[in-house]
């Protein structure tokens, strides 16, 4: 909604015709699938707190009651939390020290995160 509140009009190449995508994401929670959402904890474009707020708006069940650290080379690489709804699960992870393009800032950590998620192992 930011572009509406600051009076941004459509451009020649882009039309602001979707006020929010939350309804589309809520619809995905009724599917049998898994999702991985991650944010660099130094992201000033889309801060992880905003992403966390968006994830909580999906009204999923919290599987773990607290954020858990995940490690690469025995060092904290970020923190993760997991949500679910029926056959849908969402893992939300932060990447420590990463900015908006987390894999650009922390490629080894992001690769480890994705490999673990694909292998169904905890971050």
Automatic annotation (TrEMBL):
<dbReference type="GO" id="GO:0016747">
    <property type="term" value="F:acyltransferase activity, transferring groups other than amino-acyl groups"/>
</dbReference>
<dbReference type="InterPro" id="IPR033124">
    <property type="entry name" value="Ser_caboxypep_his_AS"/>
</dbReference>
<keyword id="KW-0378">Hydrolase</keyword>
<keyword id="KW-0645">Protease</keyword>
<dbReference type="Pfam" id="PF00450">
    <property type="entry name" value="Peptidase_S10"/>
</dbReference>
<keyword id="KW-0121">Carboxypeptidase</keyword>
<comment type="similarity">
    <text>Belongs to the peptidase S10 family.</text>
</comment>
<dbReference type="GO" id="GO:0004185">
    <property type="term" value="F:serine-type carboxypeptidase activity"/>
</dbReference>
<dbReference type="GO" id="GO:0019748">
    <property type="term" value="P:secondary metabolic process"/>
</dbReference>
<keyword id="KW-0325">Glycoprotein</keyword>
<dbReference type="InterPro" id="IPR029058">
    <property type="entry name" value="AB_hydrolase_fold"/>
</dbReference>
<protein>
    <recommendedName>
        <fullName>Peptidase S10 serine carboxypeptidase</fullName>
    </recommendedName>
</protein>
<dbReference type="GO" id="GO:0006508">
    <property type="term" value="P:proteolysis"/>
</dbReference>
<dbReference type="InterPro" id="IPR001563">
    <property type="entry name" value="Peptidase_S10"/>
</dbReference>
């Amino acid at each position: 909604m930011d572009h509406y509140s600051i009076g941004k009009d459509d451009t020649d190449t882009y039309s602001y015709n979707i006020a929010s995508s939350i309804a589309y994401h809520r619809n995905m929670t009724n599917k049998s699938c898994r999702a991985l959402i991650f944010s660099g904890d130094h992201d000033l474009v889309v801060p992880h707190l905003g992403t966390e707020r968006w994830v909580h708006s999906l009204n999923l069940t919290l599987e773990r009651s607290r954020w858990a650290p995940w490690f690469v080379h025995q060092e904290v690489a970020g923190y993760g939390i997991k949500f679910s709804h029926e056959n849908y699960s969402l893992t939300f992870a932060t990447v420590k020290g990463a900015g908006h393009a987390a894999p650009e800032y922390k490629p080894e950590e992001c690769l480890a995160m994705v490999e673990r998620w694909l292998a169904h192992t905890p971050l």
